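Appendix B, record 7
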Amino acid sequence: MASQVHSLAKKVWNYHLLNDQLEKSDCIFVLCSNDIRVAEHAAKLYLDGYAPYIVFSGGVGELTSGMFSGSEAEAFALVAADMGVPKESILIEPQSTNTGENILFTKALLEEKGLDPTTLILVQKPFMERRTYATFMQQWPVKQVMVTSPPISFDEYPNELITYSDVINVMVGDLQRIKEYPVLGYSMPQDIPDDVWQAFESLVELGFNEHLINSQ
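Structure tokens (predicted):
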């Protein structure tokens, strides 16, 4: 059973990864969460010269309630500053509670600051790369984007904050959202290969249904 779950989960994990090749861009746009490793990855990109500033976007979500002293964006910004990113190169959007709001609220913040980036590097958790891309292209389609995440494998990803089971539940839920959200206007459609969807259905049957948006 364990080997079956692992095989199915790896198939879904690999589907979520876009493996974009990064190029220097106008802006690094970080979709914040409970995973500080995303902030560290974004800070390294800035320090390596990939963009002149970073936007951290995220309020307080279900998974981060009580985790940080303030918003996710403020917590991530502190990590970046501690790693050497100048505070004047950091923008903070501390209100958003979902991916669509991350994009719309950040767009408004940049407009307020007189910034109009043409190319953006989106920084997210590995298993949310594809949905982040699909949502961005629906909400702000005139921009050129690349998506990246901390270079951590599926087997190495679980830690003291997110268990192996948590990872599978969340990425199964994200795959369902990739399929269903385009109909609601939240994101652009993505092709889902038959074997990936079969893996989704098998994992749901095995009990990985905690992050689904409706009962299966």
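Remarks on this record: The chain has two domains: 2-14+155-205, 18-148. The chain is about 45% helix and 10% strand.
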